[in-house]
Specification:
about 200 residues, alpha/beta, Rossmann fold, 3-stranded mixed beta sheet, 12 strands
Length: about 200
């Protein structure tokens, strides 16, 4: 990755972090309700019975009520658990599952770990992002967990990144290691950018 691209990514992430800090609690609540509705419709559209999702932090578009509802409806939801080798492990979400602080302070499930390849069996991946552009390029938070996961999957199902409306932009800085997404989910809309990744 060139220094210019790395610098552009760092600057954009810092700006996005700052913007997310300024969102009011009321706006966060509305955003979470919108994300839940959009993700419910996406799951139904794909007929997904097994998905991966993530437990949102306090500054991310909220996914927790969606996860809770999906589990209650009998959908198998895999939640990521970070590992020191840069890969993601996975655990099945349960309605009474404990949540602990994982690496980097991220909320992660406590429970049986299924290994990195467990995600190969899902019908739909729902992943976090800092920003996504019109071509489907995703800017993550710089640790590469999702890029490694997506890049290693033999058969990758549709991948949708969750962002706030203002974070779906014309272009994000990217390099050859960055993995594109199929679409983007915001509190007000779901946009499919490509029929499938591969």
């Amino acid at each position: 990755m060139s220094d210019a691209i790395a610098d552009a990514k760092r600057a954009l992430r810092a700006e996005l972090r700052e913007r997310r800090q300024l969102i009011t609690p009321q706006a966060r609540e509305l955003a979470e309700a919108g994300i839940r509705d959009q993700l419910d419709a996406l799951v139904a559209e794909h007929g997904a019975r097994s998905i991966s999702c993530f437990l949102s932090t306090t500054t991310e578009p909220g996914t927790r009520s969606f996860v809770t509802d999906a589990v209650a409806r009998g959908i198998r939801v895999l939640l990521p658990v970070t590992r020191t080798d840069g890969l993601l492990d996975w655990a099945v979400a349960t309605d009474d599952g404990d949540i602990a602080e994982g690496m980097f302070g991220l909320p992660e499930p406590v429970g049986e770990l299924l290994g990195p390849i467990a995600v190969n069996d899902v019908d739909l991946l729902i992943i976090p992002a800092a920003s996504v552009d019109c071509s489907g390029m995703r800017l993550g938070w710089g640790r590469g967990f999702y890029d490694k996961t997506l890049g290693s999957m033999e058969r990758c199902p549709p991948v949708y990144a969750v962002v706030f409306d203002s974070e779906f932009v014309d272009q994000v800085p990217s390099d050859e290691l960055d993995q594109p997404v199929t679409g983007v989910v915001t509190p007000t809309r779901t946009i499919t950018l490509a029929p499938s990744r591969r």
